Amino acid sequence: MTTDTKNTLLPQAVERRNPGMALDLDWVRRVQANTSAIERRARTLPGRRTVKKDVQAAWLCKAVSCIDLTTLAGDDTAGRVHRLCAKARQPVRADLLDALGLDGLTVGAVCVYHDMIAPAVAALAGSGIPVAAVSTGFPAGLSPFHLRVQEIEESVKAGAREIDIVISRRHVLTGNWEALYDEMRTFRAACGEAHVKAILATGELGTLRNVARAALVCMMAGADFVKTSTGKESVNATLPVSLVMIRAVRDYFSQTGVRIGYKPAGGISKAKDALTYLMLIKEELGNTWLSPHLFRFGASSLLGDIERQLEHHVTGRYSAAYRHAMG
Ligand SMILES: O=C[C@H](O)COP(=O)(O)O
């Protein structure tokens, strides 16, 4: 992979949405997941394919451009969100960026709870960085349905350009694909022009087959992205789950010609893990998906480790982690 020709990784205009399609239950029921084969393939990924030096630095910058820089804590304040947004605008120190030959670099989005949209929108004004809001009774998604829909509408009105919804896990666990489809369809309609990411909460779906089927149904109902986790489940993003979801994205593309984005989220905090995910995307989906339009990391602390690695690449030294702290 090379860096973009103009040496900038700044936000670009948004491309085509997923229009969705009618629910195709035959297709959903045909979907299987060979757990042992998937786990075997996942075990081959970390550390096997390494990229070195300049290429690695370019990949790490690409990873930064794909981060949904996230704060989803009960004690979030406008001050914390302002600091996070300052980091989103300039995720890597200017001297490091210079040494890496990049003119511009931002993260993909800033992801917050509904109440923090206004300070985030204000702090990101003019940057082109979208605000993503978690809505629909995040993280459990168990508030009354009409309130979940209303929350989306309020978040869009407050300026969120991306909405991360949580699905009702029980629809998956009971195989009620019609209910999941209708729910997702309603959420997507409430989003209007805002892009919608469907959080599957894969750690609570029981089986990889359920993960594959849930991803497919959400795509049929118009999800622009499928996302693994809220970050609040006991098991969040994993490589086997990612393989299953990425292959669902690939199948959906081959059947419909529509590209859906993928967002692993929760527990991704190391630069080397980010590289593994980028390799996985490249190998399974191809270079087109290595773009913030089609790939995001949901992460609160990944950026700090990537910046440390980039600093090491440029200066040959590591500084203490607190020098790259946020919040
Ligand atoms: O969607 C993003 C996650 O909530 C972030 O999870 P993390 O704090 O484990 O990086």
Note the overall shape.
Answer: globular
Largest sheet report = 8 strands, parallel
Helix content: 40-55%
Number of helices: 13
InterPro entries: Aldolase_TIM, DeoC, DeoC/FbaB/LacD_aldolase
Protein name: Deoxyribose-phosphate aldolase
GO biological process, one term: deoxyribonucleotide catabolic process
Pfam families: DeoC
Characterization of this structure:
Helix content is 45%, strand content 11%. It is of the alpha/beta class and 327 residues long. It has one domain: Aldolase class I (TIM Barrel), CATH 3.20.20. An eight-stranded parallel sheet has the order 9-8-7-6-5-4-2-10. Strands 1-3 form a two-stranded parallel ribbon. Helix 7 links the parallel strand 5 and strand 6 (162-166). Helix 2 packs across helix 11 and helix 3 (53-65) packs across helix 12. The longest helix is centred in the C-terminal third of the chain and has 18 residues, at 239-256. The protein is globular. The model is unreliable at 1-6 (pLDDT under 50). The protein binds glyceraldehyde-3-phosphate. Residues 70, 72, 111, 230-231, 265-267, 298-301 line the site of glyceraldehyde-3-phosphate. This is Deoxyribose-phosphate aldolase. It catalyses: 2-deoxy-D-ribose 5-phosphate = D-glyceraldehyde 3-phosphate + acetaldehyde. Keywords: Lyase, Schiff base.
